[in-house]
Design goal:
heterodimer; A: about 300 residues; alpha/beta; Rossmann fold; Alpha-Beta Plaits; 2 domains; elongated; B: about 280 residues; mainly alpha; 13 helices
């Protein structure tokens, strides 16, 4: 089995804004394909992308993209990556096709090729009919699409997508995610999708890097991260006295993680291989009836919450 | 299937070598301005002095009664003095939004995520303003010299004033570089081109007004270096071998201009970035 060469690596990278460290000694690698960069607002996701693009110089550490050193070869890297910024961004006074073609020319494409690619990517992102409209008249959803188009026009090997579904309605959001997924899985474009929205990452990415407070708190294939090192169940119990809390305290004392849900069931995580047998044994010992027990599938939300220390 | 068109293709064509992205910025900027009627009107108006002087040179060469119109080296210096009004208007019209509009639209992070450096970006923007300003200073002045040769039918005037061609070129470039870098630096300070235009006008008029007040109070023009435009006048007089109009030594004016260009470069270095860090 051959080892996968990462498209992006960070080696002990620290980035600070004054005294505030936005990235703290980060060491991680992004494998080829679609990788989600997940974390709450302020976790350092955008800072990491901006440092990788060379907008911010790290206080320490080294970064490599597609095998090139960020500090030594910034232009070679930028010729091979596309960046879709989080905030609204366009070149003022241009219509969509001129804007995207202009971005292609800036990336080194000959004028005729840039114009041809601009038409193609605008159709691809669903702006074919609106490509002669001034970008400033676009809706929020259209502005998100045009940002994707300008990032794609020069055919990058790696795409940085910073919150690509920001401000989009549900239909537009689904379409954007479908585009992102298509790029990664059918068009061979590596991408790093930064988002604080778990469903966005879960539906488009195969791997995830979870950040919190400027540090990496979890990383790996989503499927593997979702594999619990133990068993997860939905549990409902009944006691003679009606006091179920004392039973949950006993479970916690036995190392079983218990979390209430919005419904009348509790999600319990039983470590080790004992699983349901351990639960039944504990219930029998406490003279508690098990009225509902169903294996539960962990979500990326569970992984994320566990990684950032939330309940 | 929510995707409208699955036709994304990988690109297998050629790519331009690095270091030429600034020409893309300049070309796009020029196309934008030449596509505007207001700009074309302004350009035509800026050339009005050239047309008037062409008629004068023709008359001087062909009509003995109009010999007093015959051009002298001072004619070219006066040509630039009058053009300063158009240079001012053109600088405000073209230059105010060059970076300010990009800042308003968050375009800097688009530009700087492409394979071009901050220097290339600034140079591309600077080249737009400089080219358009040279189009109303250096180009008509050189054409006037050629017109003089054509109408006079000899090189006598040019030969006896051999310094004129380099003087026209040098002054045009000093003027255009100073004005362009200053305006570009001001443009990088704000997201509003209107505000930048007013700021530039304020710098020009306020510094001139302050100089005039001090001149009135002190009774001397030794403080002329305070005024942006007077410094250029002073340097212009020296370049065209005319007695300076003010008491300030010309090296002081030159130093002030160099200082202004350096200060503008520092402002641009701090303001043209992919991310704005607010401390």
């Amino acid at each position: 089995m051959t080892e996968t060469v990462p498209v992006v690596t960070l080696d002990h990278v620290t980035v600070a804004y004054g005294r505030n460290q936005a990235l703290r000694d980060v060491t991680t690698a992004f494998v080829p394909g679609a990788v989600g960069l997940l974390g709450p607002n302020g976790a350092g996701k955008s800072t990491m992308i901006k440092a990788l693009l060379g907008f911010l110089a790290p206080d320490q550490g080294r970064m490599r993209i597609l095998g090139l050193d960020v500090a030594a070869s910034p232009l070679e890297i930028r010729a091979r990556v596309g960046y879709m910024p989080e905030s609204d961004a366009h070149i003022p006074g241009m219509n969509a096709v001129s804007f995207v073609a202009y971005c292609g020319e800036l990336a080194g494409l000959p004028r005729a090729d840039a114009m041809q690619r601009a038409h193609e990517v605008l159709f691809y992102v669903g702006l074919g009919e609106a490509r002669y409209r001034n970008v400033e008249t676009y809706s929020t959803g259209m502005k998100q699409r045009i940002k994707l188009a300008q990032a794609l026009v020069h055919d990058p090997d790696l795409l940085f997508l910073d919150e690509p579904t920001n401000g989009m309605d549900p239909k537009g959001r689904d379409e954007m995610l479908a585009l992102v997924s298509d790029l990664a899985h059918n068009k061979g474009v590596n991408l790093i999708l930064s988002s604080h929205l778990l469903p966005d990452v879960e539906s488009t990415c195969d791997h995830v890097v979870v950040m919190d407070k400027g540090s990496i708190v979890a990383a790996g294939p989503i499927a593997a991260l979702k594999q619990p090192r133990g068993r997860l169940y939905e549990l409902r119990v009944k006691t003679a006295t009606g006091d179920v809390e004392s039973f949950f305290e006993r479970l916690r004392a036995a190392g079983v993680d218990c979390h209430a849900t919005d419904e009348d069931v509790v999600r319990v995580f039983v470590p080790g291989d004992g699983g349901a047998r351990d639960l039944f044994a504990l219930a029998a010992a406490a003279d508690v009836q098990v009225r509902h027990l169903r294996p539960s599938v962990p979500t990326l939300e569970d992984v994320f919450a566990h990684a950032v220390g939330e309940e | 299937m929510p995707i409208h068109d699955q036709g994304y293709r990988r690109y297998a064509g050629t790519r331009a070598p690095r270091g030429r992205a600034w020409t893309v910025i300049t070309r796009a900027g020029m196309r934008t301005f030449f596509g505007r009627r207001a700009f074309l009107g302004l350009l035509l108006l800026s050339w009005s002095q050239f047309f008037v002087r062409t008629v004068q040179i023709y008359a001087a060469a062909n009509l003995p009664q109009a010999a007093f119109f015959a051009p002298t080296p001072e004619t070219f210096r006066r040509f630039f003095s009058i053009q300063e009004l158009f240079v001012f208007v053109m600088t405000v019209y073209v230059g105010a939004g060059l970076i300010a509009n990009d800042r308003r639209a968050n375009a800097l992070q688009i530009y700087l995520s492409k394979p071009l450096t901050r220097v290339e970006y600034v140079f591309g923007k600077l080249a737009i303003l400089m080219t358009l300003l040279l189009l109303i200073t250096w180009v008509p002045a050189i054409l006037l010299l050629i017109v003089q040769i054509l109408f006079a039918g000899s090189f006598t005037f040019v030969r006896s004033n051999g310094y004129l061609l380099p003087a026209i070129t040098l002054f045009s470039f000093v003027d255009v570089v100073t004005v362009s870098t200053t305006m570009l630096a001001l443009s990088s300070l704000s997201n509003s081109s209107r505000y930048v235009g007013m700021l530039y006008a304020g710098v020009i008029f306020f510094s001139r007004a302050l100089f005039n007040v001090l001149r009135f109070v002190t009774g001397a023009s030794t403080l002329s270096w305070i005024s942006f435009s007077v410094n250029l006048d002073q340097i212009g007089d020296v370049i065209f071998r005319l007695p300076p109009q003010y008491d300030t030594p010309w090296p002081v004016s030159l130093l002030t201009i160099v200082g202004l260009i350096v200060a503008s470069a520092i402002v641009l270095e701090r303001r043209v970035r992919g991310v704005e860090i607010v401390a």
